[in-house]
Design brief:
six-stranded antiparallel β-sheet; Beta-galactosidase, Chain A, domain 5; Immunoglobulin-like; single chain; 2 domains; 1 helix; mainly beta; four-stranded antiparallel β-sheet
Length: about 240
């Protein structure tokens, strides 16, 4: 179960102000966790503002229950004891840096002015944030499934299918693109729960291929899937050179 809000803040013209949403939750002595690129970090509930990506979570240290807040465009959070805060707007002077002081006789441009739109979702859960699948829910909010209406016609493809099948729910697709050498597809995945995982993959593109891999906690892996049927799927690095 989750609760969501989609809306906007109209006519924001405050200057030198910060606007935060506060979520007081019934999670005592909780552990905050923040999503970072290809993983997550646990940090103290000391009220310090932390940068993060799609979500942050507060789960009791026994792992019994917690609450995650997911959003689509805000990237600063903090937790103080049992109060979770999402920073929505901040309006300092554009490109202003200390120790320079503001001069009342000068004209300044302030950021985050005017109409603001964003979406957030609260996800209370039993157990850990991993068991609730919070990283996947973050992707679902930020990269929603697109529906395309198409007429029924003759053709070789089935009425439903998947381009890439991944057996483990904690292994997420980060990117899929044509290889730089023009042959095949590059598939990049990562382990999102901090758990070692054995995973099966099946690519059903121009050439079908299935392979297995073992990922370490938060590991990023990149594969080259050739266009030629039956060709070996290779593990490659970030510049698409074979590893090993």
């Amino acid at each position: 179960m989750s609760w969501g809000y989609c809306g906007g803040i109209g006519g924001w013209h405050e200057q030198l102000k910060v606007l935060k949403l506060e979520f007081p939750v019934t999670v005592a002595h909780g552990q905050p966790t923040y999503e970072v690129q290809f993983g997550a970090l646990a940090r103290p509930a000391d009220g310090e503002e932390e940068p993060a990506l799609h979500w942050f979570d507060l789960t009791d240290k026994a792992g019994g229950r917690g609450v995650a807040v997911i959003n689509d465009s805000k990237y600063s959070y903090d937790v103080h004891e049992n109060r979770m805060h999402l920073t929505v707007l901040r309006s300092p002077v554009y490109a202003h840096h200390l120790p320079r002081e503001l001069d009342a006789s000068e004209h300044y441009h302030f950021i985050d002015q005017g109409w603001q739109e964003f979406t957030y979702r609260m996800v209370p859960h039993q157990g850990s944030w991993q068991s609730a699948g919070i990283p996947r829910l973050g992707y679902e909010l930020n990269v929603p499934m697109m529906a395309v209406v198409e007429a029924n016609r003759q053709g070789p493809l089935p009425t439903s299918g998947s381009l890439l099948e991944i057996s483990a729910g904690n292994v997420l697709l980060s990117a899929a693109k044509r290889a730089e050498n023009g042959d095949g597809t590059i598939v990049r995945v990562y382990e999102a729960h901090g758990q070692p995982t054995d995973c099966d993959f099946c690519w059903r593109g121009k050439a079908q291929a299935c392979w297995k891999s073992t990922l370490r906690p938060y590991e990023v892996q990149t594969f080259h899937v050739p266009d030629q049927p039956g060709a070996r799927v290779r593990t490659v690095d970030l510049i698409e050179q074979e590893i090993g």
